[in-house]
Task: inverse folding
């Protein structure tokens, strides 16, 4: 069936089985490969995207759930020229190693900071529950705090667009 | 005695113009004849692996483009360890270009510049340290000599900065010279610069792949695509030892999106128009598997026991065996265990293959480009030269991608439909068809003398295979080594002023694949040896740090080890007493000649072990990139905490479990130490191993701290007070 939603600021209509996981629509139909497949069971968070501002695991969400909603992926978070504060902090702290899980973590962090601009260590522990095998959690924690500082000083365009 | 790495200076340079005159390819053959055997001997003697050489011609190392940027076709793959960055630093310094001018890409097998062996074993930087600088320096001289002709100046009078060659009045870029020069002179290999003249080597240069990874733009095997690509899925068994007999595919053939069901003699797969359609169809295939035995965890545990299987003495000094033979009250003995562990790397093994009439292309995340190529070629009846492997970034390696049967399955499926096919493992298949870290059992024995020093020490380790069965080590070399180098990594006694010591490795062949897992036997072996050292220190009534120092020999390796131990104790303000509910645990290891000492600060909260802070001192020799060395230490500590405190695979009614993250418990943000304090010592003038050695001590550190807090000695990983 035809399903329409906004993704990274652009309306898209796809014609797929309505229970197709959103992840595969994003990756294989809309060709946005930054959102990763890790487990397919919402257990690792590599596929985290924003749907109407909430961080959700797209591998386990049927595409029909996104109908008429706004989806943001890592490609819509920021650009090299104009990185989101979370991406800026990730660059400053040189967080990624293999990098595969990082888009999911950055999406989860951006959603956390939008709701809680100054998270404590306990807030971070409770909310950032994705899996990273390289063990970059130590730098991520520093980057999350740095992103909170950066966000305090500016509002990023991708946040302004939100309702 | 240390033997220097054999100097391989015979080489042949190749220079070719690029298509359409966009630049110049600079290539060189770096000979690696009989590399495997020589490397094995070398590895045994020195725990050091030399660069194995590249695979064939044409060879491309550097591509100089007109815009004066350099594309470096890297023979090693980037799996997070930072090798692209470290090697770019090394090349840039001798090429005399800025790091920003370097673009690093994975060498494709067609380039000839893929590593003949693998990316692994913490050897990329150390192995290429000399060859890469020599190549870069030679190419710089070639460009300089060509510029001298062009500018009409004496080569010796020219200055080079950032890829621009100048005689004071006129200047010319590498890009310009490369596109103008028709005939190249190949000079003798020039002398390398003194270390102090390097601008990038030794500096915390930011990762060259950083921005792309942060923007989600890096391509992994899972992300690779080709035009007209279809999706494949192969049925994989969930039971141990399951043999494929036949399959009923009637239902699958009728499923939506299915293009073809492919039945081979050893597997069945399906090709469909989308991933979900391929998975759904695969799930509808009814496979008849045959299993001879229904395995349980207790069966596996019963196999992994010192005394069973084939023993091999891997280290012997003095008469430890006869001293420790007589069971008496003077003999101190403890046993330790580690569980079956999964790689659990985030990117499932994925590949896109396109098999045509007389050639094939495979895009894949692999640590063994050359082996992947050979295996694919053999499977589909082509010569290796007809198969081009295009390596992508790896979404984690950790040894998992030293086996790539998924490449063969993708190729078979592609051949069957005549179109490109992407095929990858789902998560359950990853957990059940992993090449696991083998479970281990350790028996430690010792005798103290009247002064509270160790008179004799023995380590017996039983382990499933690590090296055996791996395509990296063909069966022909097994007799050369005689025992599993991988299983006993970290299993030898590093305290060599003990007068009598011995290490014995017992080989067990398990009914499923066990193989390379980051640092191999190091984590488990160090857990046993370093927990036992604390037990002995207590028996001797000595401080654990001083006790260790008292048993280290006075030579270069010993002095480097002493220094990391002393520095770690000092940096962490190591104390034996419990303070504010927290205790410290100490441990040290030497792996691939890199000594590491760690101190963990631990408390017990609600019955659970909590690691607050880890101090880590590492001496990898010359530090090419101190920031990435720190990143590898942090990652190793956290991965080590995950493996030592949380992870465990088990077997229930023939099925390997768990099959998903969560139930397969791993360290998350909340389990990671809030503080990690790292210091790098550089007591060697060349770079050594970094990616694995810091995984050694952490398990023992935590167990030693828990003992101090609870007086309970945890001798089994994952460590738990429950």
Result:
């Amino acid at each position: 069936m035809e399903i329409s939603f906004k993704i990274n600021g652009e309306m898209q209509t796809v014609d797929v089985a309505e229970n197709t996981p959103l992840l595969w629509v994003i990756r294989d139909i809309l060709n946005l490969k930054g959102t990763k497949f890790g487990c397919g069971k919402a257990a690792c968070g590599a596929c985290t995207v924003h749907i109407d501002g909430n961080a959700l695991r797209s591998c386990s969400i049927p595409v029909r759930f996104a109908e008429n909603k706004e989806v943001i992926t890592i490609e819509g978070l920021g650009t090299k020229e104009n990185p989101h504060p979370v991406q800026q902090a990730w660059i400053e702290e040189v967080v990624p190693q293999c990098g595969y899980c990082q888009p999911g973590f950055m999406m989860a962090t951006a959603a956390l900071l939008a709701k809680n601009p100054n998270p404590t260590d306990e807030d971070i522990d409770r909310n950032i529950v994705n899996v990273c095998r390289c063990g970059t959690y130590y730098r991520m924690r520093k980057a999350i705090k740095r992103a909170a500082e950066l966000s305090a000083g500016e509002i990023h365009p991708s946040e302004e667009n939100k309702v | 005695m240390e033997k220097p790495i054999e100097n391989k200076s015979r080489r042949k340079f190749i220079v070719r113009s690029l298509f359409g005159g966009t630049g110049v390819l600079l290539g060189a053959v770096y000979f690696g004849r009989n590399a495997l055997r020589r490397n094995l001997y070398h590895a045994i003697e020195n725990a050091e692996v030399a660069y194995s050489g590249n695979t064939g011609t044409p060879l491309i190392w550097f591509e100089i483009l007109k815009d004066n940027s350099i594309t470096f076709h890297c023979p090693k793959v980037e799996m997070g360890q930072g090798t692209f960055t470290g090697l770019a630093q090394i090349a840039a310094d001798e090429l005399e270009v800025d790091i920003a001018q370097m673009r690093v890409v994975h060498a494709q097998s067609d380039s000839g510049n893929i590593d003949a062996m693998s990316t692994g074993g913490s050897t990329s930087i150390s192995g290429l340290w000399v060859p890469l600088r020599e190549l870069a320096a030679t190419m710089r001289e070639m460009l300089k000599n060509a510029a001298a002709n062009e500018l009409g100046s004496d080569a010796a009078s020219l200055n080079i900065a950032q890829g621009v060659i100048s005689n004071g009045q006129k200047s010319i870029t590498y890009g310009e010279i490369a596109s103008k020069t028709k005939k190249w002179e190949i000079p003798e290999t020039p002398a390398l610069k003194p270390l102090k003249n390097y601008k990038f080597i030794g500096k915390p240069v930011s990762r060259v792949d950083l921005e792309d990874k942060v923007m989600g733009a890096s391509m992994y095997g899972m992300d690779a695509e080709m035009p007209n690509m279809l999706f494949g899925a192969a049925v994989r068994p969930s039971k141990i030892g399951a043999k494929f007999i036949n399959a009923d595919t009637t239902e699958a053939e009728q499923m939506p999106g299915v293009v073809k069901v492919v039945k081979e003699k050893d597997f069945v797969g399906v090709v469909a128009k989308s991933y979900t359609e391929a998975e759904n169809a695969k799930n509808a295939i009814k496979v008849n598997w045959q299993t001879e035995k229904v395995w349980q965890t207790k069966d596996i545990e019963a196999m992994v026991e010192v005394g069973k299987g084939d023993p091999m003495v891997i280290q012997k000094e003095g008469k430890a065996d006869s001293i420790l033979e007589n069971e008496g009250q003077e003999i101190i003995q403890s046993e330790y265990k580690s569980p079956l562990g999964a790689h659990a790397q985030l990117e499932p093994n994925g590949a896109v293959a396109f098999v045509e009439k007389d050639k094939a292309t495979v895009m894949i995340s692999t640590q063994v480009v050359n082996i992947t190529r050979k295996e694919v070629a053999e499977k589909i009846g082509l010569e290796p030269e007809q198969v081009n492997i295009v390596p992508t970034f790896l979404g984690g390696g950790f040894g998992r991608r030293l086996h790539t049967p998924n490449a063969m399955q993708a190729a078979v499926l592609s051949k069957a439909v005549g179109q490109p096919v992407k095929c990858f493992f789902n998560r359950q298949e990853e957990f059940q068809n992993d090449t696991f870290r083998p479970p281990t059992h350790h028996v430690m024995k010792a005798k103290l003398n009247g002064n509270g020093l160790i008179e004799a020490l023995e380590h017996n380790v039983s382990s499933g295979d690590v090296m055996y069965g791996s395509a990296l080590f063909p069966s022909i070399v097994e007799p050369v080594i005689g025992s599993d180098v991988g299983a006993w990594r970290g299993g030898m006694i590093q305290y060599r002023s003990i007068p009598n010591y011995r290490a014995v490795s017992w080989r067990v062949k398990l009914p499923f694949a066990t193989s390379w897992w980051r640092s191999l036997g190091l984590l488990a072996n160090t857990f046993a040896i370093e927990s036992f050292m604390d037990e002995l220190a207590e028996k001797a009534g000595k401080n654990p740090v001083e006790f260790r120092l008292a048993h280290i020999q006075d030579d270069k390796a010993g002095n480097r080890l002493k220094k990391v131990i002393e520095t770690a104790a000092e940096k962490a303000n190591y104390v034996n007493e419990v303070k504010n509910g927290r205790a410290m645990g100490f441990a040290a290891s030497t792996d691939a000649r890199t000594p590491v000492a760690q101190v963990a600060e631990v408390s017990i909260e609600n019955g659970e072990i909590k690691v607050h802070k880890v101090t880590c001192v590492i001496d990898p020799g010359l530090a090419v990139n101190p920031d990435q060395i720190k990143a590898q230490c942090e990652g190793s500590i956290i991965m080590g905490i995950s493996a030592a405190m949380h992870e465990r695979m088990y077997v229930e009614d023939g099925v390997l479990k768990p099959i998903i993250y969560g139930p397969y418990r791993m360290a998350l943000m909340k389990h990671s130490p809030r503080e990690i304090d790292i210091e790098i010592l550089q007591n060697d003038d060349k770079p050594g191993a970094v990616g694995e050695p810091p995984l050694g001590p952490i398990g023992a550190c935590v167990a030693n701290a828990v003992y101090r807090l609870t007086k309970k000695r945890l001798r089994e990983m994952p460590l738990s007070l429950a």
Confidence is low (pLDDT under 50) at residues 1-11, 31-49 of chain B. Chain B is about 30% helix and 25% strand. The radius of gyration of chain B is 27 Å. The longest helix of chain B spans residues 124-151.
